[in-house]
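Progress report, Aim 2. The chain analyzed during this reporting quarter is listed below.
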Amino acid sequence: MHKIVVLDGYVANPGDFSWGPLQDMGDCQVYERTGSRAELLERAAGAEVILTDKVPISAEVLAVLPDLRFVSVLATGYNIVDVPACRRHGVVVSNVPNYSTESVAQHTFALLLQMLNHTDEYTREVAGGAWSRSRDFTLFLSPIREISGMTLGIIGYGAIGQAVARIARSFGMKVLVVTRTPKEDPAVSFCSLEELLRQSDVVSLHCPQTAETTRIINASNIALMQPGALLLNTARGGLVDEEALAQALNSGRLSGAALDVLCSEPPAAENPLLQARNCHITPHVAWAGLGARRRLMEITFANVRAYLEGRPINVVSA
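Predicted structure tokens for the chain:
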């Protein structure tokens, strides 16, 4: 019987869905979290199939797991796995592509609309009695800005970037795009990074984190942005120089930022963005809508089933 081990299944499935389809495929053990390397090696011993979300599968780990033949990553990004080492050991690696596109795009606009409409502030003040004390039928607090007519600059134009552009156009926004692989899309304007930063009212990050994109939002590039511009990041925390962003927010150089990801997660208490002015942070949940996690589970089960049938899919180790 195939031994299948889920090393850290809690975040993908905290109890909303059944692991039954996976358990029907073999001797399956599901762990909510796996901490130390010793715990990893003990749990994975003898496993043919491992599922991991954020537990690293390194060359050193692979060297002492001779029975391992398949790693299914519970995410789209698979940098947690040493793919070249997997190739050397004959281990197939699959991921889950494009499961969270609509969820992340929706969250991106939830963050943007919050910064433009200040719905949390208005709701909080009404609950505190401010509207009841008002002499007028309306209560003015922070100015509400209209999204129509704004220019949105999208850095990265994969599935999520394209979904964000589609929504932006429906709001009446002009869309500028920077991407390393330009596509045919007459509805947006492709341009240089400098041009995008100078012209955009809102900059939204949707690119992978690579050597070229790490800290792409830094002091120099922030200086190119329009005074009072807004920043969105629902991609990777490492795309942003957090100290530089905090300084830009606290000085008023940027009027707001909304982030779903940080360089270190969970963040240290002293992270400068936690107390920065007009900085809205959600705890890496953009990907995690119920529909998205349902797709994540279904595709993961399909990945394991296809491997066991000798026809692996969504392979990233070929």
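The chain has eleven helices and twelve strands. The mean pLDDT is 97. These observations will guide the mutagenesis work planned for the next reporting period.
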